[in-house]
Design a protein that fits this description.
Structural class: alpha/beta
Number of domains: 1
Shape: globular
Distance between the termini: 42 Å
CATH topology: Rossmann fold
Strand content: 15-25%
Largest sheet: 8 strands, mixed
Strand order of the largest sheet: 1-2-4-3-5-6-7-8
Number of strands: 8
CATH class: Alpha Beta
Helix content: 25-40%
Order of helices and strands: EEEEHEHEHHHHEHEHH
Length: about 260
């Protein structure tokens, strides 16, 4: 029995090689292409993307070092962004809308800033990257592991199937691999932060920022930090929303879809 609660029924699996790295991606739907960059974990799948399949060709890659994709010696967002430019060339994708959540939002902002001609619209869902003294990152080492799932969801009952109380070995191995990759992707803190600020200063792509009112991983005050650096971006707050917004909250999916299809 699988350790994972999500289903990929109706999705199509693809694989390509990019500079020797096996890169897996999933697709569902037809129409204008929309790429989604997932956050620091793939354990909750892409079920939410079904809601957009009648409007978009949803392209849902697993980053290198995450999910089913192969290992890569990447130690910064710049590494991932450079890889994705080669990935999109490899699959023949030249223009698309881009959506990213959490760590994937950081990556989406970085990629969009450096490849603006490729991007139609950009949606950043509680993106990581910026900092605020009013929004400290949780100290997971000081929080009992049994309480970790509830930090990611507004409703603990919603996340329970995806993050089981007694996970199997497959689930644990994936989580450990992805947690380590997420930490490495931050790169050298000072260097990475300075690069992000430069990227945001030059980012002119039409952007929507979506945030959960009760996000415990990247708290709501961070929305103001992003709005200050992306003066042209629109922001929307999802009442009661947690961190895994697109997965848990239909209102978040609807707000992003309205922006993308306007």
């Amino acid at each position: 029995m699988s350790d994972f609660a999500y289903s990929m029924a109706g999705f199509t699996r693809h694989e390509t090689q990019v500079n020797g790295i096996a890169h897996i991606w999933w697709e569902i739907g037809a129409g204008k292409p929309c790429v989604y960059f997932h956050g620091g974990g793939t354990y909750h799948g892409f079920d939410w993307a079904r809601d957009w399949a009648d409007k978009f060709r949803m392209i849902l890659p697993h980053h290198p070092n995450f999910g089913e994709s192969g290992d890569a010696d990447f130690n910064s967002m710049e590494d991932y962004a450079a890889h994705y430019r080669a990935f999109f060339a490899a699959i023949g994708l030249s223009h698309f809308d881009l959506v990213g959540a959490s760590m994937g939002g950081y990556l989406a902002a970085t990629y969009a800033a450096r490849n603006q001609a490729q991007i139609g619209k950009l949606v950043l869902v509680s993106p990581a990257g910026l900092m605020s003294q009013r929004a400290p990152f949780p100290d997971f080492a000081s929080i009992p592991s049994a309480q970790h799932p509830a930090l990611f969801a507004a409703d603990p009952a919603w996340i329970a199937p995806y993050w089981p109380a007694q996970p199997g070995s497959e689930w644990m191995a994936l989580r450990q691999r992805e947690a380590a990759a997420s930490m490495r992707a931050r790169g050298a803190p000072d260097v990475g932060y300075a690069a992000l600020l430069r990227d945001l200063e030059g980012l002119k792509v039409r952007t929507l920022l979506v945030w959960g009112e009760k996000d415990q991983i990247l708290p709501l005050p961070l929305l103001e930090e992003w709005e200050q650096r992306l003066a042209h971006a629109a922001g929307v707050v999802i009442p009661g929303g947690g961190h895994l917004l697109l997965d848990e909250f239909p209102a978040a999916r609807a707000a992003a879809l309205e922006f993308l299809t306007a």
